[in-house]
Amino acid sequence: MHKKASALITIFLLTLVTLGAAYLFGSTRATPLDIETRCEGTVDKKPSESFTVKIAFKNKGTTKGTWEITVTFEGNAWTWKGETKSLTLESGEKETLAWEGDVPDDAPADGVARLIVYYDNEFAALNWWIRVIPDAELCIVYSEVS
């Protein structure tokens, strides 16, 4: 009976060690591309107004890597997709990419969209948002008092 209990304890400990190793080493197999973000926030834009997206990338892996990168603003009321760009980085190397875009003409006022970065089979939802503000502005062109 003592040998059976020892065997069960050994199997249990080996299982724990195996699961722990799988957790630790499995999580390091994530993509070696790192997105550096220093800021976040909401930017107000009118329909048809232009914007610029700049993102710094770093290869945090140990070998040279190449990625296809696309940025989008995605929301319930409107979306925008930037041109796909290819990025090749040596280990530890950084590079900043930029995209130019316009809020769609038909984007409704108060429509909000979030910046999403797609690369390989991964994506990162960044904490940048564009909120569409009305393009209507009232001004007084004439008044009279008698």
Q: Top keywords for this entry?
A:
146 residues, alpha+beta, 2 domains, six-stranded mixed β-sheet, three-stranded antiparallel β-sheet, 1 helix, 9 strands, 17% helix, elongated
CA-based gyration radius: 25 Å
What's the CATH class label of the largest domain? Mainly Beta
Enumerate the spans where pLDDT stays under 50 for 5 or more consecutive residues.
16-30
What count of domains describes the coordinates? 2
Determine the CATH topology of the largest domain: Immunoglobulin-like
CATH homologous superfamily designation of the largest domain: Subtilisin-like superfamily
Please tell me the CATH architecture of the largest domain by its name.
Sandwich
User: What does the average pLDDT come to?
Assistant: 84
- Tally of DSSP β-strands: 9
Largest sheet descriptor: 6 strands, mixed
| N-to-C span | 109 Å
Order of helices and strands: HEEEEEEEEE
Described by its quaternary structure, the protein is single chain
Taken from the alpha-carbon principal axes, the silhouette is elongated
Beta-strand content: 35-45%
Describe this structure in words.
The chain is of the alpha+beta class. It has two domains: 1-30; 32-132, Immunoglobulin-like (Sandwich), CATH 2.60.40. The protein is 17% helix and 45% strand. Strands 2, 4, 5, 6, 8 and 9 form a six-stranded mixed beta sheet that branches. A hairpin with a 2-residue loop joins β8 and β9. The longest helix is centred in the first third of the chain and has 25 residues, at 2-26. The protein is elongated. The relative contact order is 0.22. The model is unreliable at 16-30 (pLDDT under 50).
